[in-house]
Write a structure and sequence with these properties.
The structure holds 2 protein chains of 2 kinds. By secondary structure, chain A is an alpha+beta fold. Chain A has 8 helices and 20 strands. Chain A has a 6-stranded mixed β-sheet with strand order 6-7-8-3-9-10, sandwiched between helices. In chain A, strands 13-12-11-14-20 form a 5-stranded antiparallel β-sheet, with no helix packed on it. In chain A, α5 links the parallel β7 and β8. In chain A, α2 packs across α3 and α3 packs across α4. The radius of gyration of chain A is 24 Å and the shape is elongated. Chain B has a domain of 175 residues: MetI-like (MetI-like fold), CATH 1.10.3720. Helix content of chain B is 73%, strand content 2%. Chain B has 14 helices and 2 strands. A two-stranded antiparallel ribbon of chain B has the order 1-2. In chain B, β1 and β2 form a beta hairpin. In chain B, α3 packs across α13 and α4 packs parallel to α7. Classes of the chains: A alpha+beta, B mainly alpha.
Chain lengths: 355, 265
Amino acid sequence: MTLELKNVSKRVGADMHIHDTSLVFDDNSFNILLGATRAGKTTLMQLMAGIQKPTAGTVWHRGKDVTHVPVQRRNVSMVYQQFINYPMLSVFENIASPLRVTGMAEKEVKSRVGRAAEILRLTAMLDRKPAELSGGQQQRTAIARAIVKDSDLIFLDEPLANLDYKLREELRDELPKLFSGRNAIVFYATTEPHEALLFGNQTLTMHEGRITQFGPTAEIYRKPNSLVSARVFSDPPINIAKVTKKGRSLQLAHGDVTWPVAPSAARLPDGDYSIGLQPHYVLPQKASETSGALSGRVLVTEISGSESVVHIDVGGQTWVSQSHGVHPHQVGEMATFHADVSHALFFDSAGKRVS
Amino acid sequence: MSKRYLVPIVYIIFLMLPIYWLINMSFKTTNEILNSFSLYPREFTLDSYRTIFTDPSWYGAYINSITYVALNTVLSVALALPAAYAFSRYRFLGDKHLFFWLLSNRMAPPAVFVLPFIQLYSSVGLFDTHLAVAFAHMLFNIPLAVWILEGFMSGVPKELDETAYVDGYSFPKFFVKIFIPTISAGIGVAAFFCFMFSWVEMLLAKNLTSVAAKPIVAAMTKTSSASGYELGLLAAAGVLTLIPGAIVVYFVRNYIAKGFALGRV
């Protein structure tokens, strides 16, 4: 255990930016902070880095209370969404900046900057100013500055969000390699569930200043512990519907739809629940025995090459289906889909997952 | 030559006419100025310039002006830098009101402040010193410099500050080594506006000095002397007064437009 937050909270004026939070991060771990804009990802990172002080609670690093240690003495690195570099310094000096402050010998600085520049393919641009570089190269410079010193904590705050598609893909492949094998805890904030799934490792889902879940990425995706986590971690958005369970049948609150109860949920007491069903379990054809039919009017059809996303209206509630292949549906026509009920997650009235 | 040159040429002629006439006069004798109409000096003379560069009451006035203008510019910008940083980076009680209040200082005509300044400076022994004029002009220049610098500083993302702290810079080191070079254009523009105001302001400069710190604008406006009208001499003084402004404009020419928009471009 190396970085620990104990009952940390942050209030600015009357606004709670981070609610009471306790977390432990392991050494050499890659942690993804997943949440919508303004969920508190940046604030949480700044609290861990020491750029902001918590209103209450303490931050511990390697067994020492570092709550009041200024960021300058914490040995951390940070990369922002905007490409932040020192505009008047050359790329070389930008990368060398954290080393210069420590008064490192020129020879050592040169070799370290050279190595970082090589990894990030900036060797040819070392004499240029950041403004003369492309966006991707500017962000590489910022990343090079983050890896040039041996930081204990590395914070990446949506580093790929401002890059165009191609560059994002490219850098996304490189990032995990860059940070693996370092004796550091890496934090990566993103708004995209799909990015979290690509990186794997550990994910921490956030919503309105609260940590909703923290654990292995795939596990959170498959088994979110609450409705909020399920919503944060799904793209296209997870289907959520109110249902009433009665014996071996499920009655949906909207539309005249009754489904069988899957074996996994059979032991639940009768009553009202919310169910969550990922869009890829709502398919145009019957895929399993435990499926329930859904008929409704098509609202939107999005076809992206090999995948179809169809929104249908069932008794006033919108359902989203995501399936492989091209399934053209005319807007306004009636269509029938099959929901795989065995994959439905059951949440109680408080939003906690019960099955 | 095509017609499209006509408009710019006429435009430039109208703009340059008074300046040309001033330069024209400065090379004429007072006699020629008063008694004939000539488009160029018939009897070309450098006597007026010679007088200015040899008579201490003339060149001394230039030195006085340059002294208090330089003092004023340096002090205004130095004091405005931390103030502008605070306004651009921190939220504090009444910050927006204070910020607007700064500019409201500039809404009063300088004449309003002449009497209180004369009385105040006389009683603390500052009257007729360079510092007196520099301080008086700071009342107008610091607000302006704060506004201009705040605009430029707000254009720098606060993440740059944080990146510097993360890299290990202390606040003073960051401010001097990273932040000031980053907004150097803004500092240049702010200094230019301070210089310009202080260089052309006459009322306060004239009334807060008598002999020891008499500025050029005061010397230049005494139209007659013991030897009668000396129009050639006054014209030469006028030409020399234009030069520092022209030099400063040359250096900040690329940033002036941004400066007029108070950095918000």
